[in-house]
Specification:
Strand content: 15-25%
Number of strands: 17
CATH superfamily of the largest domain: Dihydropteroate synthase-like
Distance between the termini: 62 Å
CATH topology of the largest domain: TIM Barrel
Radius of gyration: 27 Å
Structural class: alpha/beta
Strand order of the largest sheet: 10-9-8-7-6-3-12-11
Bound molecules: iron/sulfur cluster
Length: 445
């Protein structure tokens, strides 16, 4: 659990010497607690205090790194139960599975499909994070053959899923430099898997039915020096998953219980597409660090990545687009100009409607610090002055010849003051983006 300012203060020299730039040790302690200062700014802190503070600074759920280079995936490292308390740091990683029993051509196609799987949403490019090779065959030959294909055709982070330590070791000899996740150590192979995790510096998942057994194995793995752990309590039902995952998160955050202070992994397999979306959604919301899916269907994956994107967008840093003038179609001096804010979701709701109108048009995007139209208006980030200022900066009068600007219908109240501030004729557009095509066709002149 994070230390309070007072807890930190007790560990400082308490001389108020000001060498750290703060007027007192207490002020410095408060800054440290808020992560607005770094301990090395105090030259007189003792080694003992450094150790205690360093231990306390570690997140209650360890951040585990899987993969390497640009394809590194970090999971865990969370410090709160609910996003509104602070923020979530590492979004749930999504892996797609490749069974080693697939015929060669099917396997090639599956790996290719996983590589090419991508989605565009609110201006973000979303791809699949990892590939999990599953040792369905029970033989190391097929597992290694599948691994060879994946190494040759993908740079994504890898999960090596086999219960056989010898098979895992053969695989690690080929790909340890890519820092794969070993899945999984269990009661029957713990010592061997821990040795591999330690020797090859590979993070390792532990699987066990129920939290008591998982807790016991985790403690053993920690004492055996496993590189970094991921937990799978093997829930049999979604209800059990929700219960187990929540208990793990609460034990690590509320009790600072280290053996359960690791990210959670969940394999989600079903023939029912709705079931996959349902289970994955629950796991992403509470509290899986990684999910492994077997479905490559876009209609299954899109809602899952969308939910993940919504949960893991930091509410304090909304997704934005660049404030500027965006042309749509073959615009000319007579094209209409609409204005909106730079909240990404707003932009990507409005722009397809402009495109759908088939009328070349401009969209002027102002800097509203990522707020939507009504929120920005209420927060005085979408005011007549800001809009007029943006029009001036972007020299709108040189872009079009008509001096008419269309504002969103919800902020019709801005029209008078915007006319005064800009000298332009203000037209009130539709309230909803879906009304844009009809508006441009019937009202714009
Ligand atoms: Fe206190 Fe250290 Fe800052 Fe001096 S440098 S005021 S001892 S925290």
């Amino acid at each position: 659990m994070a230390l309070s300012g007072l807890d930190i203060y007790k560990l400082l020299p308490k001389t108020n010497c000001k060498k750290c730039g703060s007027p007192t040790c207490l002020t410095f302690a408060m800054k440290l607690a808020m992560k607005k200062a770094s301990l090395d700014q105090c030259p007189d802190v003792t080694e003992e205090a450094k150790k205690a503070l360093d231990q306390a600074a570690r997140p209650p759920i360890a951040a585990i790194s899987i993969g390497s280079g640009d394809n590194e995936v970090v999971v865990g490292g969370e410090t709160v139960l609910f996003r509104h308390e602070k923020t979530f740091y590492h979004q749930t990683a999504i892996a797609l599975s490749v069974d080693d029993i697939l015929p060669a051509a099917d396997m090639d196609q599956r790996v290719k499909d996983i590589e090419e799987m991508s989605f565009e949403r609110v201006g973000q490019h979303i791809t699949i994070d990892m590939i999990a090779i599953v040792n369905k065959s029970g033989t190391s030959e097929k597992f290694i053959a599948a691994l060879d294909k994946i190494i040759a055709n993908s740079k994504k982070a890898i999960i090596l899923a086999s219960d056989d330590a010898k098979t895992i070791e053969e695989a690690l000899k080929k790909c340890a430099d890519r820092r794969p996740l070993i899945y999984a150590a269990s009661g029957s192979n713990l010592k061997d898997m821990c040795r591999l995790s330690k020797d090859y510096k590979a993070p390792m998942a532990i699987k066990a039915k129920g939290l008591d057994e998982l807790d016991k194995l985790s403690q053993e793995a920690m004492s055996l020096g496993a590189e970094g752990l991921v937990l799978d309590p093997l829930p049999e039902t979604l209800n059990q998953a929700l219960n187990d995952f929540t208990q793990i998160r609460r034990a690590s955050l509320k009790k600072n219980y280290r053996p359960l202070g690791y990210p959670i992994i969940s394999f989600i397999n079903s023939d029912d597409k709705y079931r996959i979306v349902q289970d994955a959604s629950v796991c992403i919301a509470k509290y899986a660090g990684l999910i492994v899916l077997d479905s490559l269907d876009k209609e299954v994956l899109l809602p899952i990545v969308t939910l993940r994107q919504n949960i893991y967008t930091d509410p304090q840093k909304p997704v934005t687009v660049e404030p500027k003038l965006y042309p749509f179609g073959a615009v000319d001096k007579n094209s209409p100009v609409m204005v909106t804010t730079n909240f990404s979701l707003t932009f990507y709701t409005v722009s397809p409607e402009i495109e759908a109108s088939k009328m070349p048009a401009y969209l002027l995007v102002t800097d509203s610090e990522g707020m939507s139209v009504l929120t920005a208006w209420a927060a005085e980030k979408f005011t007549p002055e800001i809009i007029a200022d943006t029009m001036k900066k972007l020299e709108l009068e040189n872009v079009v010849s008509h001096k008419k600007i269309i504002i969103p219908g919800y902020v019709s109240v801005l029209s008078g003051k915007l006319e005064d501030a800009s000298g332009w004729n203000v037209m009130v557009g539709p309230k909803e983006a879906s009304g844009i095509p009809k508006y441009l066709k019937e009202v714009w002149k």
